[in-house]
Amino acid sequence: MPHRRRELLGFIVAGAVIVALPLATRNPYLLNVAVFIGLHSMIAIGLGLLLGFAGQISLGHAAFYGLGAYATGILTVHYHINPWLALVIGAAVTAVVAFLVGRPTLRLHGHYLAMATLGFGIIVRILFNEGGEFTGGPSGLPGIPHLALGPLVLRSDLHMYSLIWPLVLVQVVLSRHLLRSRLGRALRAIHDSEIAARSCAIDTGRHKLMIFVLSAIYASVAGSLFAHSISFVNPNPFSFMVSVELVVMVIVGGAATLWGPVIGAAVLTIVHQIIVQLGGLYEPIKDLDVVIFGLILVLMLLYQPQGLARLRLPRLGRLTGEGDDG
Amino acid sequence: MAETAPRLAVRNLTKAFGGLTAVSDVSLSVAEGLIFGLIGPNGAGKTTLFNVVSGLYRATSGHVLLGGRDITALPQHSIASLGVARTFQNLQIFASMTVLDNVMTGAHRHGHCGLLPTLLRLPAVRVEERRLREAALEVLDFVGLADLRDEPAANLPPGKQRLVEIARALAGKPSLLLLDEPAAGLTTHETEVLGELIGRIAATGLTTVLIEHDMSLVMDVCQRVAVLDQGKLLTVDVPSAVQADQRVIAAYLGEEEPA
Amino acid sequence: MTASALLQFLLTGITVGSAYALVALGFTLIYNATGIINFAQGEFVVLGGLLFFTFAEVLHWPLAVALAAAVIIVALIAVIVERLAIRPLMDHPVLSRIIITIGLSVILRGSAKLIWGVDAHSVRPFSGDASLMIGGAALQVQYLWVMGLTALAVIAVRLFFDKTITGKAMQACAINAEAARLVGISVPRMVQASFALSAGISALAGAVIAPVTFASYDAGIVLGVKGFCGAIIGGLGNGLGAVLGGVLVGVLENLGVGLAPTGFAGLQDAFAFLILLLVLFLRPQGLLSRQRTEGV
C-alpha cells in the first residue's frame, strides 16, 4: 500500500529531523525557535482537526493556550502544586471551559463558533489583564517553577525540545489513529455531507464538540509547557492576533493532513523570526508582520487552499516512485 | 400479524413551509417486511415525507411511529440510530472517502468506542474496527461492489454511487430502509440490476419504502403502493389496483404517463 | 444610581449603540448576499473613522465632503477586496470565504497601523462641544448627530431595497440566488453591491462615532464583535432586527458598566462579549426573529 508506506516515510523523516537538529547545532537561538515551533505545532495539530474535519474555525485558541499557561502558573506559584499535576488540572479546566463555549454554538448550523471563540478569547485576555495579584495583571506572573523528571530539572531549551518534540510525534500518531477509526470516518463524513452523516446516525454536533474540546486540551498542554519553560507568563502571547496566526499556520500547512499543521507551524514561526530579525535592522519592518500574515493567509486560500502538505512535488515523487496521490 | 405494531406508521402528518403545505394530513402504515412503493407526480410531497420520517424536517403536526414508538420529535441522528436508513435523491456520498469507508460509516451505530480509546487505539478499538470492516465487506459483496472497495467513491459513475449509498444504508443493519428514487439517472441495464437488488433486500425481510418514478420497477418489486398527489394521500393498495385506479391516472395526466 | 446617572448611561448607550446598529446592518447585508460572516466588518468602521479624521482634521475639508469621501473610499476598498479575494472563491466552501475575510481584516488593520500609527486620533464634534441638559444628564450635540445620521442611513437602506430595481434585485439574490440568476440578475454584481453598501454604512458609523470615541487602528475587532452581537440578537439576516439589536447592545453595555461595582471599569469590553456569549448560548436564533424556515 503506497499510502501507508508514504505515511511511514513521513514518520521516519520527521523522527530523523527531530533527532538530528540538536546533534547538528547547540545554537541556543535555533533551539529556542525549535521549541516554539514545537509548541505551535501542538496547538495547530488540534486546530487542524477542528478546521479540516469538523469544518469549524476557532479564533480563541490563543486563549486556551493562555488558560493552560495561567492555570499552571497560578497553581504552582500561589498553591505550590506539583507542575505536572498543575498541567493536568489546567488541561481539565480548559476542557470544561471549551465544552461550555462549544456546546451551545456547535449545535447551530453555521459558523457561530468563530465569533463565540473570538469573543471568548478577548474576555479571557481581559481577565488575565485585570486579574490583579492573582494573575499578575499586565506585568505578568513570575517565578513559575520548571518541570522536573525525577532529579532532572527541565531548565534549558534542549530539555524542553527533548520533551516537546516527542509529544508532537505522539500527537501525530494519535491523529492518525483517530482518522483511521469509526470516529475519524464520522468526522470526515461530517466534512463531506452533514445531512448524510446524520442519516448514518452520526451526532454531528457532538462530534464537532469532541474535536473542539480535544483541540483546546492540546492548546492548554502547550500553554503549560510554555509557562514552565520560560518561568513566567503575561497576557501578551495570548492575544487575538496569536489566534489568527495559529489559524494561518493550519491553512498554510494544510488542515486535513497529518503533517500539515506541523509544517505550517514551522513555516510561520520561521517567517515571524525573520521579520523580527529584519525589524532589528530596520525598525518599520516589525510593523509589517501583521500585514504579511494576512497576505500569506489570503494568498494560500486563493492559490493553494489544500496547504503546503498537499503541494505536488513531481520530481520528488518520481524519485521515490510514488507520483500518485493515495 | 394484526397485533404487532407496523414497522412504520404515519398519523395525520402535515408539513408546511410557510404558506406552502407540502404534506397534508397523511396517514399510512407499512407492515413489517413489506416493500412499499410511494409514487406520485413531481411535487407531490414524497421526498418531504421521507425527510420528515427521517428527521431532516420537523413535522408541522401529526406523528411518526417506528415499530409503535413515537419518533416525531427526535433529531435526525437519533432516528437513524434507531434503525431508519435512507438514500438521497440527489446523491450524498462521502466524496473524500473510499467506497469501503463510505459503507463502514454506514455502520456507525454499531460501534461504541469513545475518543480516548480511539486515540490510543486500544485493543477494543481494533476489534471493533475489524468487526465493522467485515460487516461492510459483506454488504459490498451483497450489492456487488466488492471489487471497487478501495476506489475513491467520487471516482465512481453515478450508477455505482447509487449502489454505494444503498450499501451504506444497509451497513447499519436498519429495520426500515427508505430509498429515494434509486433508479434516477440509471441506464436500463442498471435499473434491472437495481430491481434485482431490491428483490434480494426484500428477501432478507427488511421493510423498505421506495419512492420511484420508474413504474415498471415499482410494479415489479412492491407489494403495496401509496399514491400522493399535491401533498395528500390519494390511495394505498396493491400495485395492480393502483395501476387501474382512475384517480391515480388523473393525477398523473399532464405530468407524465404511469408507464 | 441616581435617575440622572441612569439617563446618562442610557443616552450614551443609545449613541454608541447607533454605531453598533450600522455595523450590525453591515454584517446582515453581506451575510444575506453571500452567507459569509465578514470578519473584516470592524475594519471598515475603523477605516471610515481614520479617513474621516484625515480629511476633516488634517486636510480641513468641509464636514460633509470629508464624510462623503470617507464613506465612498471605504466602499471602493470593499469592492476591490470583494473582486480580488471573495469572488475567486465563490465556488469554494463558505468556510474558506469566512477565513479569507479574517485574512483581509488582518491586512486592513495592519495597513491602518502603518498609515495612521498606534495612537488614537481625536476628532472634533460636527457642530461644536455644546451639550444639552436633559433631566440632569448631559446630551452632547454629537450624540444627536450620531442618532440622526444612523436613522437616516437606516431609512435610506430601507428605501433603497423597497424602491429601487437594484435593491429589489439584491433582495432577490438573498432569498434565492439560483432563481435570481435565472431571471437575469447578475449575482456577482449584487454581491459586489452588497459589499459596497455594507462597507459604506460601516464607514459612516466609524466617522460619526469618531468624535465620541476617538479613531484608532485597533478598534475594529471590538466594534466588529459588538456589531455582530447586534446582528445575532436581531436574528442573523434580519436587517431591522440587526439595527435594534445593535442599539440594545450599546444600551446594555453602558448600563452594565454603570451598574457594575467600581474597579470593574476595565471590564467594559468583556461585558459586551459576555452579552454576545449569552445570546449565542441562550437564544442564537435572535431575540427579535421567528425561527428561520429550515432547508436542505
What does this structure look like?
The complex is a heterotrimer of chains A (326), B (259) and C (296). Helices cover 73% and strands 3% of the residues of chain A. With 326 residues, chain A is mainly α. Chain A has a two-stranded antiparallel ribbon with strand order 1-4. Chain B has 259 residues and is of the alpha/beta class. Chain B has a domain at 1-83 and 174-189 and 206-259: P-loop containing nucleotide triphosphate hydrolases (Rossmann fold), CATH 3.40.50. Chain B contains 10 helices and 10 strands. Chain B has helices at residues 46-53, 76-81, 99-106, 115-120, 123-143, 158-171, 188-203, 215-221, 239-244, 246-252, and strands at 8-17, 20-30, 35-39, 61-66, 69-70, 84-86, 176-180, 207-211, 224-229, 232-237. Chain B is globular, with a radius of gyration of 19 Å. With 296 residues, chain C is an all-alpha fold. Chain C has a single domain, classed as ABC transporter involved in vitamin B12 uptake, BtuC. Chain C contains 11 helices and 2 strands; from the N terminus they run ααααββααααααα. In chain C, a hairpin with a 2-residue loop joins strand 1 and strand 2 (137-140). The longest helix of chain C is centred in the N-terminal third of the chain and has 32 residues, at 3-34. Chain C is globular and about 60 Å long. Chain C starts with a helix and ends in a 14-residue tail after the last helix. Chains in contact: A-B, A-C, B-C. Chains A and C meet through helix 4, helix 5, helix 11 and helix 13 of A and helix 4, helix 9 and helix 11 of C.
